[in-house]
Design brief:
Elements: H1 11-67, H2 107-117, E1 122-123, H3 124-134, H4 139-151, E2 155-160, E3 163-168
Antiparallel strand pairs: 1-3, 2-3
Helix pairs in contact: 2-3, 2-4, 3-4
C-alpha cells in the first residue's frame, strides 16, 4: 500500500494554501461578528415588542375594567359617542368651511396663488411641497384641487411624456413685453 501525503511538496503551494485559509478564517470571524450584532439587535427589538405587548394588554384590561366592559384581551372597547373625536362643521353652506380655520385661505385659493406666483410649470409633487409649507394636505387633495382649477380655466395642464405639469392661465407664456405705440 502506498502512503498518501496530505502536504504538497512545493513551498509555493503551501504558502498559497496558508494565505487562503487565513483570509477565509478572517472573513468567517468577521461574518460571525456581524451576525452576533444582528442577533443582539433582534433580541433588543424583541424585548421592546414584548414590553409594548404587555403594556397594551395591561392598558386594555384596565380600560375594560374601568368601563365594566367584557372585551376580549387585546381588543379595546369603543369609547362612548360623547368621548369620540368627531369633526364638527364650522358653519357655512356645503363644504366651504370644512378643514380650515377661520381667516385661512381655502386650498383652492392657496394652490391658485402658488400657481400665479410661479414662473414655470410645476409638477404635483413640487406644488405639494409648497402647499404643505403653508397648510397640511395630501398629494391626492392637491391633485384634485389642480384638476378643479383646470376645469374652471384658472390653470393649464401640460404633459411631457408621462409627467404632468401645471401652471396658471397666462403664466406659462411668461411676461409679455408691451408693444410701443407710435404717436403719429
Amino acid at each position: 500500500m502506498e502512503k498518501v501525503t496530505a502536504v504538497p511538496e512545493s513551498p509555493l503551494v503551501l504558502d498559497e494554501y496558508a494565505r487562503r485559509i487565513r483570509t477565509d478564517v478572517d472573513a468567517n470571524l468577521l461574518r460571525q461578528e456581524q451576525l452576533r450584532g444582528e442577533l443582539r439587535k433582534l433580541e433588543e427589538e424583541h424585548n421592546v415588542l414584548l414590553k409594548l405587548q404587555q403594556t397594551l394588554a395591561t392598558g386594555a384590561e384596565a380600560i375594560a375594567s374601568a368601563r365594566g366592559g367584557t372585551g376580549e384581551a387585546g381588543e379595546l372597547p369603543k369609547p362612548p359617542r360623547a368621548e369620540r373625536q368627531v369633526p364638527r362643521r364650522r358653519g357655512g353652506k356645503g363644504r366651504a368651511g370644512k378643514g380650515r380655520l377661520s381667516g385661512e385661505a381655502s386650498l383652492i385659493e392657496t394652490v391658485n396663488a402658488l400657481l400665479q406666483a410661479q414662473v414655470e410649470p410645476r409638477s404635483v409633487a413640487e406644488i405639494l411641497g409648497e402647499v404643505v409649507a403653508v397648510r397640511p394636505a395630501t398629494i391626492q387633495t392637491v391633485r384634485n384641487t389642480l384638476d378643479r382649477l383646470v376645469a374652471t380655466s384658472k390653470a393649464e395642464r401640460t404633459k411631457q411624456g408621462r409627467s404632468v405639469y401645471y401652471s396658471a392661465v397666462g403664466a406659462a407664456a411668461g411676461p409679455q413685453p408691451t408693444p410701443a405705440v407710435d404717436a403719429q
